[in-house]
Amino acid sequence: MSAALTAVERERLTRRALGLARLTVAWNVVEGAVAIAAGVAAGLVSVVGFGIDSGIESVAAVLVALRLSARLRHGTADERAERRTLKAVAVTFFLLAAWVTVEGVRSLTSAEPPDTSVVGIVLLAVSLVVMPVLAEVKRRVGRRLGDPLVLADAAETRICALLSASTLVALVAFALTGAAWLDPVAGLVIAAFAVHEGREAWEGELVCDDDHDDHDDDEHDDDLHEGEPSTERR
């Protein structure tokens, strides 16, 4: 954590990060349930895959919330147990990628085209508005705290926004053109994102990527905490 923060500021930011994690869980549970229901009803692999990914994002947010809650209560957290749980989340991403890939290939070879889904399109459009804003707020809080897990959670949320964009483009294009191959191709894009998320969750590289982004941002933007000492060495 940054040495420039007082104990009161640190607690306030930690509580804010906890609130953001809880908001992420609530949003993704609803988003995932609606997406899976809409995807199954329309036979859209990409929408079902997006809904499952939302569930996995909820698990990651729960891990963040548990750590922050423990920190507020005791000031410490079980890093080893948390790391094992994160690896378990990584495995679920790999399973998601495998399922979406199999279903995508099956859809490409199937003669039965999926239906369009207005519910899916609206859900993805709303997600595309909410997720980038939520990711940026998390990133700012994580930078102020110098907390790698909050920064990793922000990176996960940014990936969710990218998934919303890719899936929405495919659904709108399918609704306009009727090209059935667009849905399974979007599903394969989700599979690629899931493998990426899983690999970085397993290896702990999300933090490194976000820290690199922070260095780039700091060259152009000092509005978060101008004059704050570097948090690279703690």
From TrEMBL:
> Is Hydrolase there in the keyword field?
no
Report the main location listed first in the record.
membrane
Cite a GO CC annotation: cytoplasmic vesicle
Name one matching Pfam family.
Answer: Cation_efflux
- Segments crossing the lipid bilayer: 20-41, 47-66, 86-105, 117-135, 159-182
* Tagged with keyword RNA-binding: no
Q: Please name the Gene3D superfamilies in this protein's record.
A: Cation efflux protein transmembrane domain
GO molecular function terms listed in the Swiss-Prot or TrEMBL record: monoatomic cation transmembrane transporter activity
Kindly list the places in or outside the cell where this protein is found, as annotated in its UniProt entry. Cytoplasmic vesicle, Secretory vesicle, Synaptic vesicle membrane; Early endosome membrane
- List the membrane topology term(s): Multi-pass membrane protein
Instruction: List UniProt keywords, sorted A-Z.
Output: Cytoplasmic vesicle, Endosome, Membrane, Synapse, Transmembrane, Transmembrane helix, Zinc
**Where do the Cation efflux protein transmembrane domain residues begin and end?**
25-198
Where in this protein does the record put region Disordered?
A: 208-234
The protein's name: Cation transporter
Taxonomic path = Bacteria, Bacillati, Actinomycetota, Actinomycetes, Micrococcales
